[in-house]
Structures are given as C-alpha cells and as structure tokens.
Amino acid sequence: MTDSPVPGAVPGIADLIAQRYSRRDALRGSATAATLLVGGSLLAACSGSDDDTDTGNPPPTVTATAAPGTVTAGTRVTLTATATDDGSVASTSWVQVSGAAAQLSATTGLTTSFVAPAVGSSNTLVFRFTATDNAGATASADVNVTVNTAALNFTAVAKNRNDLVTVPAGYSVAVLAATGDPLTAATPAYANNGSDTGFAARIGDHGANFAYFGLTPSDAGVDVSNSTRGTLAMNHEGITPAYLHPAGPTAPGGSRPLAEVVKETEAHGVSVVEVAAATTGWGRVQASPLNRRVTPSTAMVLRGPVSGNALLQTAFSPAGTAGRGTIGNAALAQTPYGTALSGEERWARYFRRPASDNARRSAKEQRALARYGVTADEGLYGWATVAGDDTLYRRWDAQATAGAATADFRNEPNQFGWVVEVDPYNPAATVRKRTALGRLAHSGIAPSIFTAGVRPAIYMSDGGENEYLYKFVSQTAWASADAAGGDRMAAGDKYLDTGTLYVARFAADGTGTWVPLTFGTNGLDAANATYSFADQADVLTNARIAGDILAATPMDRPAGMQVSPATGDLHVALVGSNSRTAPNAPNPRIYTDPPAAAVGNRNGHILRLRDTGSLPEATTFSWDIYLFGSGADLDATNVNVSALTADNDFSGAESLRFARPSNPAGLGAAVLFVQTDDTAFRDVTNNQLLAGLSGALGDAATTANTRTITNANGTSQATRIGAAVTAARLKRFLVAPNEAAVTGAETTPDGRTLFVNIQHPGENGTAAAPSSNWPANQAGAAPGARPRSATIVVTRNDGGIIAL
C-alpha cells in the first residue's frame, strides 16, 4: 500500500524509481525496477548473493544493522555493516530500496547515516548493503527502519528563575553574538564597562527578531540551503541605558551630552552579521564585508504611495522622499527573494511633543498624533535636548514652528512606523521604507507562501492593546524567477510598492473579512466627520484611524506572526491585555491572574487564520485559537482552556517561528517555536521558549471546536478553538536568565542549529548593581559583570534536528 504524500516531503524511493524506469524495463531479465545508479555503478536491488560458479569463488559474508531500528521523523539513524571474504572485499555500497526517501550521509563504506524523513504515517524504509570482492562476487543484506510521525523527543525544561539559559538534557548552549561585539576588523573588543564607543560598527542592543540567510561556502554568494555559513539580519528594539554608560546615563533635565546620545541612537536599528560553523562551534566573522549596521542615522528612501506626499516633508527632506534611519524595530521576516523586512514598532515614544504644541496644530493633526502616541513632553531619552543645531538630534523634537513644515520636523513622526527593507547580501544596497504596507506599530510581519502566478500577501500586526491585524496584497503576481537573486531591492519595488492594504474584521462564527483601506470607499474620504482623509497617502499614513472607521476587530496586543510551511495557516501571537473590558470572539477571556489584581487577558493566546481557498488574494478567512496562555493552576474551564501542565504552561507569547520546510521539523506537523516576553508569569518563572507540533486550522472535531467562556466580569463569549494540546505536542524547551525576554528564534535550513535572541537581561538593575550577570556567567560565575542582550546557539549533542 502506498503512503499518502506528506505536503512538502521528499518523494518515496518507489516514486523515484517509477520516474526512471518503465514497466517493460522492470520485466527485463535480471534488471529489476529497483536498480539504482550509485557512485557510477549499477547495483541490483535484490537480496542474496552472486556466487561465481565458474571459479568456485564464494561471495563475501555480509550483515547490516540499524540503530535505532524504530524512530520518529527527524531522528538520526546509523546503519552499520560487516563484510568478510576469503580473498579481499573490493568495494562496498549502501542504497535505499524502498520507503520514504532518505538522504544517506555516504553511499560507500561500512557505515552510513541519515535523518529520518517526515512521514504522514508509520513507514518502513529498507536499505541494502552490498559487498563485492576482487573476483566480482557480490553479497547483499537488507535492513529495515520503521519511521513514525514526528514527536518532541526531549524532556521539558522545568520552570525556573535562574540567571542562566536552561535547555533540555542532551543539548548545549553557546553565546554567539552580544551587544557591542565588533563588526569590523578595526573595531576593538567590547569592554562592557560603559566606555565603549563606535556602535555604528558594533552589534546593537536589545536584539529582537532575526533571520538566517545562507551563503556559499567561499564567497558572498547566495546559497539558501547552506547550514554552516550565512548572515543573521537582526532587529534592535531598544536599549538598556544603565549599562551603556560608565555610571548610567546623565540625570534627566537640561541638555543630554552628545556622546551619550550618539551611543544610544547608534545602538538601535538593524545589524547584519556573518556567522559560520567550525569544528569548535559557531562564531562571528568579525571582518566580513557583509557585516553592516543600519541605525537611526542611516540614509534611506521612502517608496510607494506616500513617497513625495506633504505628510513626509521635513527640513531634511523638503520633497518628502528621503529619510534617516529606523528605530524601535521588532518584527523581522525573510522574503523569498532574499531580503529582510523589518517592522518599526515602538517609534512614537522617542519624539518630544508637549501638550503646548496642540495650539499650533489643526484638530486633524492632533487626532493623528494622539492616535499614534506622539504625546511625550521630552521623548523617551531626551534626545531632542542635545545642544546645538545638528538636525540628527533636533529632529526628535516634533513640535511645529511658525514656519512651513519644511522648516522644522513636525512631520518627522510620519517618517516612522513603516516596514523597512534591507538586503543582507549587499551592504551597498539603499534601505527602503515601504509605505504601501501602511504606518503602524509593526510588531509582526509574515509573508504568505509565494506561489507562481498568485499575488502574494504580507500579513502584519499592530502591537498596541486593542489594535488590529492587517494584510497587504501585492498588485503583482509572483514570478518564481525572482527568487534566483539579482537585484533584490528591485524585486521589493516590484512586489511591495503597489497593492492593497486590508484590515481584519472577525465574526463570531469562525469567519472573517479583510476590509480594504482604500481612499474613497467605506467612509475613508474627505467627508468623514471624525477624520477627513485627503488621499490614499493620508489613509496609509493614518492606517490606525482608517481601521477605527472600518470597525476592525480590536485584539489583545497582536505581536509576532508566521505562516506554517506545512499548512499555510497564519499563526498570530497575542501577548495579552490588561485593559479589555468587553470580550470578542477572537479575544474571549477576561479573568484575574493572581497575585496581580488586574483583570484582563493577562496571559495572551495564539490565533490561527486561513484565507479562503488558501489564497493570499482572498478577502475572507476562517480562524480559531490554537493555544491559550495560562498558568497550569488556573480555572480549567474558562482560563486554562488549553489544559496546559507544569511542563508547558506559559504567558505572553510575543514571537513565533516555524522550523524550515527544508528539514523534517518543518514538514507534516511542523515544529513551532513560541517565545515569550512577559511580566505576568515572572513570579513563577523567567521567560521561555516552547516547542510545539502544530496542527491545522479546524483540527478539532466539529462538536469540540466551539467553547463559551464565562468571564470574571460576568460576561460570556463564544469562541472557536483548535484540537486539544497534549503534553507530548507542546513542551518548554528553554528558560531565559533574569529579567530577560526571549524575542527571536531561527533555525538553519537543516534544522540542526537553533539561534535564539535573549533580550535585556537584568533590565531593572544599575551599572553599580546589575541584576543579572548574563551572558558572562553562562560559562561560569561572573560576579559584577554587566548583562548584555545576546544571540545564543543551541545544538543537540548528537547532531540531530532540534526538538525532534
């Protein structure tokens, strides 16, 4: 009986044979349909031996064994043979005879190995060892390996509050890159005592989401399959000023010292750093020509429908087409044509705009500025107070003057809140801001699966409480040839500068609608009484206000998102809410989570969404809730709806990352890595990373896919839920050090290396009294060491695929 194919899995060996040989060939003499060409020789896939009766030469004596003989997908299997002969054995070979196709590490010799492939159900793989002596006599032995569907083959890490990264038994952790590490040969090592300068040539602070881009082994060429050399493109969401300066930052009030502000601004943005694996482990390539920093001072261009609009005009760019830098970056996604899309999330807090500025602003401007939170008296770090007239710092003062907009920086906030595109393979490529994707607090970005002839989509989340989910659909259908490289930024121009932006409106029956943010429709026009839109550029610049008018569904802090490579379902992390008073179907819970007195959805949840027909172009969708965050001890009926246990309870999922479909962990029930950035659970455990075997939208039985939640405030809400999550399908994989968040995860294409970002350890400490010593203490005690955000490498001691 032939197994049903697994989506994205390699074909079975029988399928390959069928493609090569016809039925007539299979019936000819002793040449069977299982004859394969290996190492330049034809091997007959039949058991037994060939006794050379003309010479009386006996064939070799052979055996073949497998360890282990029964495995789950993703497990490494070793095949071992013996071959003895009265004369001498001239050659030996291994070949697969049947079953789901596996890739052998060697086809000659006595030993070989393979990683068990993804299978839809239990599958028997047959391998044949053949030995040939000097006289040409051969003998073969077959060995069977039973491969079962994927399983999480590690022991869950216990909740803890240790100042270390904790991983399962059988795994190892190494620190790869940390705040301040140099990116050029001339940049000195990081002293980590506050004296360091030159962050434009150092890795930034607060590493957040990131992606791995494979390189060819010996040069800067693109090789997306290379799992031992690549670049990491990484966001820097913020800074911990206490540790950047010798004794912390200067006290607030008055003018900030220029040197401090230069360091703080340069520590934001994006880093591109080359990394490579060696026999001693992974390391940074400090002098790589691909290493790059994109900071709040980097020149970039604004593309798309808002470019050149009056809303973007400033004293720096009177034409409204150029900008400087990116800041507050959280989400980062990889495009199939080889670029990184970075989302500006927490950008509004950096601007100075006291209430006195309202007198110089129209009612419309006041509405727009307030809706995005550009309302700080001094700005988060007081950068606008730097003495002098350097517009790099004066621009953080968003107050209007008596002159025109081109005389000041009243529109500088409009230059932020976009998706930023970076080419990690070409440091000379100019960075673009893609205005067609809308201006938000971009906390999540997820490209759809790009299919030839179909217009692709970019899904996005707005990271505030009660904000919305969005989708941009390109005007241009995907052409697979664009994945081959060439001018990657031109490909971004092609797919991301023209299209339609939508916002999500959910219905209680498990369906929903993508409503277009198009000027002149649905009240998005000059006649609107609450906000008079001037044009499409105004709609995109003020996408939040457009979402309000279109009655989009407010969500519980939408954050990281990714599309499953196995099912195409969009997964969305909802961090939680302390302000929800009225539930809705996709955000159904309102409860008290002791010891806090706040009532809301403090632990968050993960939602799944599928466009109708699995087409990114579709304007309708279906949804359910995959996981409800909760402590294991909370009410099982109305709070701990996913029946989480001590081995997998969690709170505040912020980032999501699927294993790649280039290895078994990303096929079938693909592994989903869930990262948390949460304070509600810190009385129990530090933040964590969980690994789950994802299902598919609608995987619950029809009678079990609805649930009515009874809330602490007396309301009740019907919602849609997925299949029950068992302890075997969701486990805690990693726990972070003190006061840190787990903000990014990424794997190599072969699934055998996991990169994880640990952000702001010891964030509540001071230079004199740090509240964490990580990562210096990961290798041993390091009293007094200042903590740093860092990227770690997690590997299995046996070289297997992570989590399987």
Describe the overall structure.
By secondary structure, the protein is mostly beta strands. It has two domains: 13-148, Immunoglobulin-like (Sandwich), CATH 2.60.40.10; 171-347 and 416-796, no CATH class. The chain contains nine helices and 42 strands. A nine-stranded antiparallel sheet has the order 23-24-25-26-27-33-32-29-28, with no helix packed on it. Strands 18-17-22-21-20-19 form a six-stranded mixed sheet, covered by helices on one side. The protein is globular, with a radius of gyration of 29 Å. It starts with 12 loop residues before the first helix and ends in an 8-residue tail after the last strand.
Helical/strand content category: mainly beta
Which strand order do you get reading across the main beta sheet?
23-24-25-26-27-33-32-29-28
Give the domain tally.
2
Helix content: under 10%
Please compute the radius of gyration using only Cα atoms: 29 Å
Task: Give average pLDDT, whole number.
Answer: 92
- Largest sheet composition: 9 strands, antiparallel
- The proportion of strand residues reads 25-35%
Give the N-terminus to C-terminus distance in angstroms.
27 Å
Question: Count the helices. How many?
Answer: 9
β-strand number: 42
Shape: globular
Low-confidence stretches: 1-11, 13-47
